[in-house]
Amino acid sequence: MFSVNSFRLRHGTFLSGTHRFVPRSQRAVYLTALLAAAANGQVILLHMENMPTLEPELGLVTIPEQYYRQERRDTLDALAALARHLPAPAIVESEAGNLHDVLGELIGRWQPQLLVMGLAAEHDLLDEMLMNQALPALRQTGLPLLLVPEETDVAQDPVLPLPRLVAVAADGEAFELADSSLAFRSVLESWSAQYSIVHIVTPQDPSDGGISKAEAAVRQSGLLPAEVKCTTYQIRSQPRSKGIVQAALDIQADMVVILARPRTLLTSIFNLGVSAEVVRISTVPVLLLPTTDRPKSALE
């Protein structure tokens, strides 16, 4: 089964997905509900009734339909119980069909501003297959995408707070925010978070001027309100992906923002590019904000 949780704000809808509804996957649900509450929004929990496509050559056995019917009932009951205790009003929906088509219908109905998906700390073969089917459909919407890693220690509190410090990874090249990212700025403002622009240089790169260009690029894009003061942080690392994650750890950021170039949105998040590796290894949520076409960037 594949569960997608959608979160409707007064300004739009947030969609969040997990492919198995377990206690740890509530982390993404609670975080998105907090974001919705901060923006005076409503939460829509959408359960996708998609059976995975299994390749015969992989030697996988088809799971009986009765199992899926029981799992659907259990999942909807769990979602309904969870919805009653979220910090924002919540509705549970269940849809069947192709995820791409369902997302298209859902987006047309709710006009979402953000898609959110929970990520398992460890992936088995079925996990990878389900994610490989879901992520392209989520990515092709052109909407901001928040990827939330699951807590590996189930004894820890799964609830995440609203972001207090957000690390914005920037490479120094000018960029323009896509319309969907521009519309998302009001949600960013509702967090009342502080921001730090982080810039990564490789051992071969010169140290001078990079962080200043990165800060200027972010400021000129309009991502952050002009009155918002932010710090800067530069680290030397190879590869850059590890540098971004390390910088977030160094400054104790609650979230990492990656400026997703159009070519990144057209390739697999989990296979190519700096964004892919950041998503793989980050222990804090990663927000991918779409940008419009610009010259090639060192970050991606």
TrEMBL record:
One Pfam family in the UniProt entry: Usp
Source organism, top-level taxon: Bacteria
Domain UspA: 188-289
InterPro entries (UniProt xref): Rossmann-like_a/b/a_fold (IPR014729), UspA (IPR006016)
Transmembrane segments annotated in the record for this chain: none
Protein's name according to its UniProt entry: Universal stress protein
Native organism: Hymenobacter qilianensis
